[in-house]
Amino acid sequence: MSRTAAWEDPSAELHWEDQAQPRKGFFTDTSICIGCKACEVACKEWNRNPTDGSFELLESSYDNTGALGANTWRHVAFVEQDRDRITAARESGRQLVSLGMPGVGPPESAPSAGGAAEPPDLLAALEGGEQMDLTPPDTDEFRWLMSSDVCKHCTHAGCLDVCPTGALFRTEFGTVVVQADVCNGCGTCVAGCPFGVIERRDDGTVHPKAEREGAQRVEQDIPHQGTANKCTLCYDRMVVGETPACAKTCPTTSIKYGDHEDMVETAEARVRELHDRGMTEARLYGANPDDGVGGIGSVFLLLDEPEVYGLPPDPRVATKDLPQMYAAAGLAAAGMLAGVAAAFLGSRR
Amino acid sequence: MGNADCIVIQGSNMAECHPVGFQWVAEAKARGARVIHVDPRFTRTTAVADRHVPIRAGSDIVLLGALINHVLSNGLWFDEYVKAFTNAATVINDAYGDPEDLEGLFSGFDAETGAYDPASWAYAKADGSGEPAEPGEESQQDPTLQHPNCVFQILRRHYARYTPEMVTEACGISAEDFAFLADTVTENSGRERTTCFAYAVGWTQHSQGAQYIRTASILQLLLGNMGRPGGGIMALRGHATIQGSTDIPTLFNLLPGYLPMPKAGVHDTLEDYLDSVGTKDQKGFWANADAYTVSLLKAWWGDAATEDNDFAYDNLPRLTGPHGTYQTVMRMLDDEVDGFFILGQNPAVGSANGRMQRRGMSHLKWLVVRDFSLIESATWWKDGPEIESGEMRTEDIDTEVFFMPAANHTEKAGSFTQTQRMVQWRHQAVHPPDDATSELQFFHDLGLRIRERLADSGDPRDRPLLDLTWDYPVDEDGEPDPESVLAEINGRHLTGEAAGEPLSAFTQMRADGSTSGGCWIYSGIYADGVNHAARRKPGREQDEVASEWAWAWPANRRILYNRASADAEGQPWSERKKYMWWDAEAGKWSGKDVSDFPADRAPDAVPDRSLGGPEALTGTDAFIMQPDGKAWLFAPTGMIDGPLPTHYEAQESPVENPLYPQQQSPSRITFARDDNLSAPSAGHAGAGVYPYVFTTYRLTEHHTAGGMSRWLPYLSELQPEMFCEVSPQLAAERGLEPYGWATLVSPRAVIEARVLITRRMMPLTVAGNTVHQIGLPYHWAVGREAVITGDSANDLIGISLDPNVQIQDSKTGSCDIIPGRRPRGAEAQRLVDEYIERSGASVEAEARRISAPGVREGTETPLDEAHPQEGDPAEAGESHALRAEQDAGDHRKRTPREDQR
């Protein structure tokens, strides 16, 4: 069980009753991502999402899809950094520890990779007390960060909160999914997402280079045109007990999938392990239930500040302040009423 | 690999090109292994490695040789292993001359033919006379490793000048990086720990690619890392079942199971042939080559193969020379090839010197392309670069092109063999669309039709086709049953009680015609009539060897030469690396794997050598395929370009060979032609015209020449445009703009690419000069059919080949880079020609093979003063000259020295 146990159950009051399932989620460990983009492709194939590339270089290292959007539900960022930035990241990560960042601290037990059977020689190495080499990695002149981004499936989901049609709903797994046949494409959710994940799908027309030169264009079906689209955490696979396509295809287990509670626990163990190896730049993202979205369903292990990966450092769900806003608005209205009343009262004088 | 304590990835971008296999590197790392990536570029592999060691492309033998020297100089070799299992103690005959003494050449070189006679590399006779021993004969041994001509001492001398300073000088690797690499590798080798190397075409695609791998083999043997868990050298194969296509080969010079193809005039009879493969009196399993060969002939020609006709040996084609892909293209250009089949390949894009490939095809009468996309090799005649430039006109091309749609891997059943020699069965998921068919069906059908045409032929040349066993059962779609092919490969008993039953191992094969088998090393894959390749018992339900997942050749063995995982007495080297061991009570080898050794051969057994074959192997002859049972640090036979790896510069190099006056590998294969000129090497006038090194490679997002990726929008959008990777320093030097266009020129072609400026490319300081390297992915092509198009990097590459395996030197070449787009039309070739003229590259220069100045043609005067060796003044000089004189007999025919300045 996570030491930061104050997670709210997002599906608690949704009356799933006996169909309710443990909350599911991802743990994306960017420290072992090799940037192969198999997650992007597997996602598009499984969900039959159209391509949205211009078939031109995006001018952003090896990234040519840019960001999460209506069609790209997994997106791999590539960040090239030099020594100064690495040193700064290592220092900022270290400070997070001293500030008491949840989930970082001395290891409570031997870290477990989860799933794969431990090899006998490793067990021997750990239990036999043989010193494992835990010196920090040596490539510190330069590094190339890769990170597969995805919908956060927030505990307090802004998109869901603001959806006027009920197209967005909270599933029995605690995830957030759009029903394309209900969505009217109003786009309110787009502004409601603090991460910029959800997007309305346009007509999907792409203009590949081949077409510009007069040859054949890419023909593709554009399902769910004009509706809001985002990662469903492969809801259709989950309901039959299958792993989401991205996690299934990930060759290095950088993308892990499972019960949210286990994912958070695995993530916390991993960050401890990396800190023990001197990689103090490692930190978790979205694993704090007290943040502006109540923590997220797809936690990340990052090797630098979230901004470096294009993630907001302090996401806040737009509706978080709604009660206060209502209160303030009420107060203001009351004040105005009082003022008006006072004016009338005054005029009678 | 998951068991390794250290993994050195060199000559491979494993994470990008083998992402699925890379899970084992990730696993090893999670268990605490250290991962080092040695590569000219900082790649996605480097990003997750512990350390990047940047290296100049083409200098790997210097680095690996220096590691060997480090091990030998500092007493770091695994002494018991080396003495028990390698030929370190074997004495080489007196006639052997080393490049250290012969200006960079081995003894036995014939400058006329450019080839070596390996006679002088032979072991010495056991009598101590220093005379060469016959193959298979007992040889002189010195277990103390002190004899000056024993392999161990020859190694020491050969690599003595491969020092850390030389590594800095030749490879551009800092002393600190070298020390880190050397310490990490040696600290993670020995009884308790193992180090693994992984390479791919970054090692093979050089004019001495086979020697790169030999160098690593020597190092791994000295460190005792072969035949043990977490050790070895992983040959990462480029795509699915490339391993399978060498086992049951698509190569011109091999028959299934690494039996050589017979040569015309040399192997005229079955006996001649078998004697050349392995004699009955030599040790090891090649002594049974007769059983493997006869079983193969029985599998192919069935009842028509009888003892009386040497089992139809005459049905086998004979080689009249190297019939590799590049020689074939040149024969096309000479109008000597009528027809051509292209299957699973896109040579117009994927082969070196693309222009030569496309022009070659335009000389064909007919061309068949089987693919699932209309690849450039099928469309070059209407929209290739030569059409665009006006060099070829569609209406002038007489080649008739047939495009046949092919089924892809999900649309047909069959097998894939991967790097670990593991054969995994693949079931058909969906039916192929429309007219698409599998290769199996296509060739089966083609065979049936040709045989029908020839049915009445009495011409003996048609017998091989008409007598071929061609009786595979077909299903309702006409698809032959792939398991029936697997059963044929596995082999059967043909006589006696068991007639018709599958063989259970290759040891059951006989040379008397009583067994058949299409590939001896695969025998057992269909034992008991069960498709063992289709086994799918999950790893979590078995031990870590996982013997019940699919099947690995030979005999379902997961680690080759695993006898070496135990010491000379048969006990595990350590508890931690325990794998196979001698169980004295049971009188057999035990462990979790299948023993790669005669199962009941005791460690102290010393059978009579005259028994020959496996029976003659002693209890420590762990390398059971070798005629002496030992792993070869020094290879007395088998390598065409020398018994020990020696550094030469690539065909095109901006650096003078810092080790020897001989610049390039003397026995490399070159083609001196106007359409295949090389850039002048360092030291020649004109070398500065093509000042930069380029290296080509793949990206994760694409598949080789693009046939399986550029037609797929999902993959195309991930890497949509051809680009080149350059360092910020080179960009500044040449005025290249980020993501702007650049033009690259080599003596073969001019191409354009978008510019990706990145610190992942870094200039190296080599011999006091800055060497800039340019990275070029090779997936794009000019055409109109694919989703994305672009210029082909392979058009830049010239053809020079490794003499052992005929692979092209495509990992390092010379070019120039300038800002802006390339010229169009005829202007493009004019630019190429202008560069050639300026550089002085010519067919005459190309034809010169020898640059070692010691002996000129017609004289025996050494001329070492003509070639001062700035890099290593201590070694410059007299030893070269003296030995060159002594050995002048071998080098009399050298061509004139090339102009050095």
Q: How would you describe what is shown here?
A:
The complex is a heterodimer of chains A (349) and B (901). By secondary structure, chain A is α+β, with helices and mostly antiparallel strands. Chain A folds into two domains: 18-114 and 126-316, Alpha-Beta Plaits; 323-349. Helices cover 29% and strands 13% of the residues of chain A. Chain A is globular, with a radius of gyration of 23 Å. By secondary structure, chain B is an alpha/beta fold. Among the domains of chain B are: 1-87 and 159-238, Dimethylsulfoxide Reductase, domain 2 (3-Layer(aba) Sandwich); 325-410, no CATH class; 562-622, no CATH class; 669-842, Barwin-like endoglucanases. In chain B, 24% of the residues lie in helices and 13% in strands.
CATH architecture of the domain at 669-842 in chain B: Beta Barrel
Largest sheet of chain A: 4 strands, mixed
Instruction: Count the E strands of chain A.
Output: 10
* Overall average pLDDT of chain A: 83
The pLDDT mean of chain B sits at 93
| pLDDT < 50 runs, ≥5 residues of chain A | 102-135, 207-216
Widest beta sheet: strand line-up of chain B: 22-24-23-29-21-27
Task: Enumerate the spans of chain B where pLDDT stays under 50 for 5 or more consecutive residues.
Answer: 855-901
CATH class group of the domain at 669-842 in chain B: Mainly Beta
Helix fraction bin of chain B: 10-25%
Secondary-structure-based class of chain A equals: alpha+beta
Report the biggest beta sheet of chain B as strand number plus sense, adding barrel if it closes.
Answer: 6 strands, mixed
How many β-strand runs of chain B? 29
**What is the CATH third-level topology name of the domain at 669-842 in chain B?**
Barwin-like endoglucanases
Numbering strands along the chain, what is their spatial order in the largest sheet of chain A?
8-1-10-9
